């Protein structure tokens, strides 16, 4: 309770006491009883009640989160040119009064959810997009009174600036900006761009009307039931197509893997065949080289000697054909050639 309310409360008790004393004076007068003391008390209470009421009406306490505009019958235009800031102030009793405005940020929400917005029921903004689709936008406007222009605000809008200005301008600008985009752009690629455009326009129009825009919040975008069903069907079709694409890609990978395995087996077989052929070639070359060396080492005497060695072991003497003039003595078979 501030001092102004306290004085007005005391003044009320003084007026009640004055009324009681006047009733007592009236009753005593009807009975022909003296009323001198009561008359003095009545005068004192009357003076006290008038003074307290006047002082209580003249003292104004402005809360720390408030600004006050003084409406007067004394000055030109009916409004003091300077507002009252927070604290205790004096105004002319019964000739002036104050209109209070909040310093704090104010939130005006327009929502399709009941009891969530400033008005009951569905208060979302209906918008027809560039491609003819109907969408419903939930939004919040956070703003404050410009403390340097609160007198001008009162002169223009009185205390109805929220309903008559904030709501009207916000809904109109949201509709105008959103109608310049297609529905796909609003919900995806251009949503942030649209919100920024709305914010810029609100900043300008609020400043022109003595308000400060703190923030604009694009809360939700909702489609009509028909379009929502169409979008759902499209998403299902896209998911099915994506799944089919994935299956095809998987089959391609499996086929490629099988081809690589087959290619690896074929390459291994080729390498094995080439290795076997190379081994046979080397073996043949070795055999040929051995035969060549063997052929170069053969002499008539060696051949004769090998011939003799392969005879029966008991043979000590052999006869040669008649055209030979001598008998060849057998060599000692125990000697290594």
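^ Assign residues to that structure.
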């Amino acid at each position: 309770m501030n001092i102004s309310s306290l004085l007005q409360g005391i003044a009320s008790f003084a007026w009640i006491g004055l009324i009681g004393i006047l009733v007592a004076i009236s009753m005593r007068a009807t009975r022909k009883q003296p009323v001198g003391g009561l008359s003095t008390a009545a005068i004192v209470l009357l003076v006290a009640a008038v003074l307290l009421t006047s002082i209580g009406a003249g003292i104004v306490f402005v809360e720390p989160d408030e600004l006050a505009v003084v409406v007067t019958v004394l000055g030109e235009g009916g409004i003091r040119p300077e507002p009252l800031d927070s604290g205790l102030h004096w105004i002319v009793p019964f000739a002036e009064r104050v209109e209070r405005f909040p310093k704090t940020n104010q939130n005006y929400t327009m929502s399709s959810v009941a009891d969530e917005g400033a008005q009951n029921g569905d208060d979302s903004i209906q918008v027809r997009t560039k491609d003819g689709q109907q969408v419903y936008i939930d939004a919040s406007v956070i703003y404050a009174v410009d403390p340097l222009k609160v007198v001008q605000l009162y002169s223009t809008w009185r205390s109805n600036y929220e309903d008559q200005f904030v709501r009207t301008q916000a809904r109109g600008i949201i509709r105008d900006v959103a109608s310049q985009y297609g529905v796909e752009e609003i919900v995806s690629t251009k949503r942030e761009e649209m919100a920024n455009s709305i914010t810029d326009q609100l900043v300008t129009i609020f400043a022109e009307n003595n308000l400060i825009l703190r923030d604009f919040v694009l809360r939700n975008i909702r489609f009509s039931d028909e379009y929502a069903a169409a979008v759902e069907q499209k998403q299902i079709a896209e998911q099915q197509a994506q799944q089919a694409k994935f299956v095809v890609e998987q089959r391609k990978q499996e086929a490629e893997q099988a081809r690589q395995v087959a290619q690896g087996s074929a390459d291994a077989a080729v390498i094995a065949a080439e290795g076997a052929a190379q081994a046979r070639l080397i073996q043949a070359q070795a055999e040929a080289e051995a035969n060549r060396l063997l052929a170069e080492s053969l002499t008539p005497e060696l051949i004769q000697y090998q011939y003799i060695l392969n005879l029966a072991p008991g043979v000590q003497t052999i006869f040669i054909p008649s055209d030979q003039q001598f008998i060849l003595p057998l060599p000692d078979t125990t000697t290594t050639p």
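The longest strand covers residues 211-223.
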